[in-house]
Amino acid sequence: xxxxxxxxxxxxxxxxxAKIISHQLMLRSSMIRQHTSGIYTWLPLGYKxxxxxxxxxxHNQNKIGCNEMLMSTIQSSELWKKSGRxxxxxxxxxxxxxRHENELLYGPTNEEVITDLFSDYVNSYKALPKYxxxxxxxxxxxxxxxFGVMRGREFLMKDAYSFDLTEEGxxxxxxxxxxxxxxxxxxxxxxxxxxxxxxxxxxxxxxHEFQILASTGESELAYDxxxxxxxxxxxxxxxITSMYSASDxxxxxxxxxxxxxxxxxxxxxFNFGIKYTKPLECYVLNKDGKRITPHMGSYGIGVSRLxxxxxxxxxxxxxxxxxxxxxxxxxxxVTQSNFxxxxxIKNIYNILTSKYNNISLxxxxxSMGRKIKDSELIGIPWTLIIGNNYKEKGQxxxxxxxxxxxxxxxxxxxxxxxxxxYTP
Length: 424
Ligand code: ATP
Ligand code: MG
Description:
Number of domains: 2
Oligomer: single chain
Strand content: 25-35%
Largest sheet: 9 strands, mixed
Bound molecules: adenosine-5'-triphosphate, magnesium ion
CATH topology of the largest domain: BirA Bifunctional Protein, domain 2
């Protein structure tokens, strides 16, 4: 893509309202724009990143046999009255009345809707277990929306729901999601810490949050240092959960040999048995034709919050440092707009475009220095500078954003160079 076509305005200074680095960088690099309190427009760069994150999450959900679908954002209040949560959920729920005086709401979560839907489509034990998910906007009228998309009122969530015939089956499912979550966050380049968590409005008695360590995080954590391990995925659920970890009100203040820190909650999983299936009269028939109430779990990931969490993890004083599989562009070609090298530049751009699908060419009428700064601010993993060095010696300067490493390559060498994954 030519950056002259992109809706993008880099800001040198951080807007005053942005208190944490991820919010500052998202505003400075035109990723998001606040529409009104806690509600954001995703601008082209931010939207590309959001889609990339979504796809990594989707890939991992599909791998465990979870069905992707899409439920509506607006829900009827009926089911919530049946489950008892219509009053319990309180002021965080955005309630809407339509022209026929029907009580509707903007979905903050989907346990009721999915249970009702499942009842309609599944009636035999033979179909269990079933895993369903969607990636959909949620609304929670947070009392204090802050830190940009970190705590919004409208936010994107991946929420999955599982149905099992027995409590034992539901626990096996919980372990499958637990491990799949570890893999998802590792694929996003993050180091997740699974911590024992309170279940809040969702309910149940078994629950874990997945936290990313960050001094700006809103959650308090206490955990065994052995949990900070890039090989965590190699360990079993039992091994991982035998190590101490807890968040917020679950923390045992008398523990001494643990690390206490702060984190960003990027995922939360729950096992809550028949909390929704029972009041919503959902059942399947077992092999003797007897009605059995299925056991459920639900599993959330904060997709929009992750954009900010990843920036908190990967940035420096110059800007964002995106992991390559999340970056809005893989390679940015920076050239002088008045340079007499157009054929060569086009050629290099075409070679790279045929190999990778997200290459940008900064053809804007700005100074080289400004363009290089923007490339660093946006966090593009590789910047190719076609400037005086190319004119004089036929060399393209290749800079890696993760560590600032520089090499000079000929056009021929560019063709064979692997602009690949690396750990920022
Ligand atoms: P929190 O404790 O941060 O308020 P929660 O426990 O209420 O979150 P869950 O119901 O567990 O949230 O939702 C699943 C995931 O959705 C969370 O782990 C988080 O990543 C994300 N999420 C929840 N609320 C928000 C919000 N207001 N803005 C952005 N993401 C959110
Ligand atoms: Mg939570």
